[in-house]
Amino acid sequence: MKLLKVAAAVLNQTPLAWDANKANILAAIAQARAEGVSLLCLPELCITGYGCEDGFHMPGVHQLALDVLHEILPHTQGLIVSVGLPLFFRNALFNTACLIADAHIQGFVAKRFLAGDGIHYEPRWFKAWPAGQRAEVTLGGRAYPLGDLHFDCGGVKVGFEICEDAWVATRPGSQLSVKGVDVILNPSASHFAFGKFDVRQRFVLEGSRAFGVTYVYSNLLGNEAGRAIYDGGAMIATAGRLVATGPRFSFQQVALTTAVVDVAATRMAQARSGSFRPDLDAPTSDCVAVPFDYPRLDPQVPTPGGASWEHGPHVKEEEFARAVSLALFDYMRKSRSRGFVVSLSGGADSAACACLVHLMARLASDELGWADLWARLAYLKDLADIDDARQATRALLVTAYQGTRNSSQATRQSAAAIAEAIGAQHHELDVDDVVGDYLALVEGALGRRLSWETDDLALQNIQARARAPGIWMFANLRGALLLATSNRSEAAVGYATMDGDTAGGLSPIGGIDKAFLRRWLRWLEAHGPDGRMAIAALAHVNALQPIAELRPPSASQTDEDDLMPYDLLDAIERAAIRDKRVPLEVYHLMRAHHPDLDPRQLGVWVERFFRLWSRNQWKRERYAPSFHLDDENLDPKTWCRFPILSGGFERELAELRAFVARGG
């Protein structure tokens, strides 16, 4: 046996927060040393933070990253550590992993495949390193190897796949395997999306099996830069077996996952494989010799672990609750805000936002304990004595129901019940006189009365907008974040009032569709995270039809009457926007999946979607930042680009109308 203790750390970093990022790195190194680790993998670009965006174009950033790297070196004595940072070389910037051993830089491996789709824009800042190319970079008068390298660390060969490198068909691990590499490190910055962890786990397991190696995967954690959420989830696999997994959605700054692996066993697994063919002609110039002495270890029984909720029937609901709770916590503390404010209408969207703040307090305090939680929020000194989730919610969340003559008693009671159940500081405001004052001003200017028959949209919108000044005032008075309450389904068709329900500095549910949100609220009413954080008062919300309450009660207004059934809207959105299908193709798909719907009505709904989508890009451009939750995002700043002005699918919609008219 040749035993080696390896570790992967997940870190909650912040772009350009040099001292905080360095402190997390040093904490991970210290914990690894205390646990007898020899080889530690830290996340991609962990010195600078991954989300620096055009900050990567600043020469001072590159130099500061190197300065911090040299400050880290003395703390790595007796360890092998991989640290991620950008490196400027020959007038190009590369995304690199620096391998350190015994407090000395051994070389830099540059990322070969850059993530340039969806939320990622790496080719804007970095150059991809060509396969097989090696060079030397001079830093402080000393030359270091750079490029497509691996390392012989005291007789154990170590190679790299940096995040995207492992997601491509021609992943570098296949070449590393035939060169006799024993351990592949994968320093990643892989954002959360529903179902994505399963994909990561598959490539870690398959990489370890197919390459006959130990595979060590590290990742970022938390809300790093505002929109992307990193779920952590470190993994260690050896020869096709997952031997250790780390926590996901942790509120810790640093979480270490370790395992003792047998290098001799993976080598023999390769030897037994009839398909394994070592590259006997491989050049030796790409292998950097690193002297290193490993401590003697005793074998350990691997314990993969993993939270129980990850294997239950409601994984997506659990992930949504935990991802957004963590994102809210980090957004609040990194912006040094004093909590949140929500305009609580009694409906699903605002109730979800308020409940997520409450879940944030519960999940964070459950994991950290109250003392550590308030230590993380040290700027909120006046809250340090709170040790109860309801009290914490009251201290961190203000809600307000803002009624008009068109508001119902049912929504008023629903809002009050939710606020009481979670402990929010709740207010009831009557803004009908404010609406009346605006109407009087405009009617006086126009010289005519406004009526529902001629001015329907304007009369609806002024009610929503009249609620914005008061709720913004609560946020300003408290130094808190105002949460916008519009969801992704509404964003798709512009069914939201700009400067009304879109008012806010952060839109926590802007990345999730209405159909799932309603299902999630039913789950939260009955179960909640871990089956123990249910909010029974959501029965009031779940019993109501989605309704804006902007027309007189006699109009019997509902959201789905204004638009179409939300399940259908979301299906059309996925087909049209995610899958990029034209109107007639979308119609055919919807006919196949909803044969019970009247074809002419379906044609009307498909056309309505495309017209509203085209007209409302300007609204999507103005929405407050939202969290990236899946690969169906509509955020034009990070995911889904569409022109503000366009032809509006006129020719395509004419084709659809003609087909439906023919009885199609």
Describe the structure.
39% of the residues lie in helices and 18% in strands. The chain is of the alpha/beta class. An 8-stranded mixed β-sheet has the order 6-7-5-4-3-2-1-16. α12 packs across α13 (456-466), α19 (566-578) packs across α20 and α21 (599-615) packs antiparallel against α23. It is globular, with a radius of gyration of 28 Å.
Descriptive labels:
alpha/beta; single chain; 18% strand
Helix content: 25-40%
Please report the number of helical segments: 23
- Tertiary shape: globular
| Radius of gyration, CA atoms, in whole angstroms | 28 Å
What is the makeup of the main sheet? 8 strands, mixed
Task: Please describe the topology of this protein.
Elements: E1 3-11, H1 18-34, E2 39-41, H2 59-72, E3 80-89, E4 92-101, E5 104-110, H3 122-125, E6 134-139, E7 142-147, E8 150-153, E9 156-160, H4 173-178, E10 183-187, H5 196-211, E11 214-218, E12 221-223, E13 229-231, E14 235-238, E15 241-245, E16 254-262, H6 263-272, E17 287-290, H7 315-334, E18 340-343, H8 348-368, H9 370-376, H10 389-396, E19 397-403, H11 409-422, E20 425-430, H12 432-446, H13 456-466, H14 468-478, E21 481-482, H15 488-493, H16 514-526, H17 539-542, H18 559-562, H19 566-578, H20 583-593, H21 599-615, H22 617-622, H23 650-661
Parallel strand pairs: 1-2, 2-3, 5-7, 8-17, 9-10, 10-11, 18-19, 18-21, 19-20
Antiparallel strand pairs: 1-16, 3-4, 4-5, 6-7, 8-9, 11-14, 12-13, 14-15
